[in-house]
Amino acid sequence: MLLGGSKGHLALMDWKEKKLCSEIQVKETIRDVKFLHDEKMYAVAQKKYAYVYDNQGIELHKLKNHLEPSHLEFLPYHFLLATASRLGFLKYHDISTGSIVAEYRMIIREPVCMTLNPYNAMINVGDNRGCVSMYSPNTSAPLAKILCHKGSVNSVSFDARGFYMATAGSDGLWKVWDLRTYKLLNDYFSPTAPSKIDISQSGLLALSYGSRM
After folding, report:
1. pTM, rounded to two decimals
2. Structural domain boundaries of the chain?
């Protein structure tokens, strides 16, 4: 389990044994953390650049081409690290060669959330206009775009087969979509807008409201 705090605290833990593996203080804002191909390396989106650390907390790489990253995702079958920045760029970094393989300017200025679809390796970006845009490393424009909410899209998640997408918005609604037809299946209202939504490998959907689930 990898934890990163807004005040720069970064901790790697063994969640089964409840044991702390490593702990460091980077002394700047951490916006996102993501494991790479295994637990021995992970990427961190810090205030100005993206960094790669090993499981002992030792800095391995400083990715200066990724300015002000806000969200991270890793494509395990392509060995690509995807970053979305506060400047509106989506970049794909090949961690095997150390080079950027694709770089696109998104329509949105500042993405609210970003999630990988594990089935087709599509990067899905939610914005403050209520849209979810689906990107591929081969194209600069989104392959599909769905208007999901009247407010911003707080969180997006997918089931393991890639058939269904769940979204949570600031309008207090959370919805389930069929990606085979891009149609809405169900929508539910909550008095408090969900801040995070996720679908487990067994198909269970979990919601969080700030510090509550």
Report:
1. 0.90
2. 1-105
